[in-house]
Amino acid sequence: MVATTPAVGSPALWTTSIAVLVGLLVLDFVLTRRPHAVSLREAVGWSMFYLTLPVVFGLFLWGAYGSEQALEFYTGFVVEKSLSVDNLFVFIMLLAAFAVPAELAQRVLLFGIVGALVLRGVLIALGAVLLQAGTWAFLVFGAVLFLTAARILREELGGATRERDVSKMRSVRLLRLLIPVTDEYRGTRLWVRADGRCALTPLTVVVVAVLATDVVFAVDSVPAVYGVTEDPYLVFATNAFALLGLRALYFVLQSALSQLVYLNHGLVLILALIGVKLMLHWAHGLWPTVPEIPTLMSLAVIVLILGVVTLASAIARRRAIRHFPSRSRP
């Protein structure tokens, strides 16, 4: 039950977690200091590492705080990971639109992940303040999730694609109006001196574009996790664990992501489910006879939705190859 579990985040746990998070980010910056194209073997290794961390952390929560807190963490992590996979589609589009060299891709993703962590930290704090102000905050979070689900569904039914003209993004246009941008990349440098004045490199522009999309995803994802747990620490932990492994997961799944044709349909169902869970939780506080959706049931349904999405996408891909074999070739 969302409201009855005691808070997990002690000052010591918060301090330790933030220190570990900063340490991992510094390690990532050190590893990307010398740009190189990431091999599949390297990406798989880091992906396994970042998938093992939340499993071990959930077992720690189970032993230290109880099964309910651990289940809330695992459920929140699955929700965040499924939403972060959708982030990867946008990252792929941005990196392709800016023709980012393979050896610089991981640096761009790292900037994007750091920006996402900062933005979600701010929204997590704001969410905690809203929850302390009253149970009406659950209605706000639920409305955000329903609106997001409706937007995604409208785009899918309207036949909208994930492609967009990056040059029309407000943040990119404003940046190019204010400061000149060089025509080519200069390694990992964000700005250079050109003709006696400061000029940005295309790397800065793509980083700004990634950070701009981080804002949208943060607004969607934080209310989703607050639909699983009210504990700000668990919301922070699920976001951190989901985002940390995003860079490595990008290099593992960049070719396979395009085959998950029904991912957005699954996200619509997941967001709607959590929205209903929030509404029921709010109503239960006023009318105790109104039932709530248990965390374990939420986790089971979310995993089932993701499984069906993956299977349906694989079947659709197989049928497309059978009927249009030439289109399946790169």
TrEMBL record:
Coiled coil: none annotated. Keywords: Membrane, Transmembrane, Transmembrane helix. The chain crosses the membrane at residues 12-31, 43-65, 85-102, 109-130, 136-153, 199-218, 233-253, 260-283, 295-316. It is a multi-pass membrane protein. It comes from the Bacteria. It is found in: Membrane. Pfam families: TerC (PF03741). Belongs to the TerC family. This is TerC/Alx family metal homeostasis membrane protein. The lineage of its organism: Bacteria, Bacillati, Actinomycetota, Actinomycetes, Pseudonocardiales.
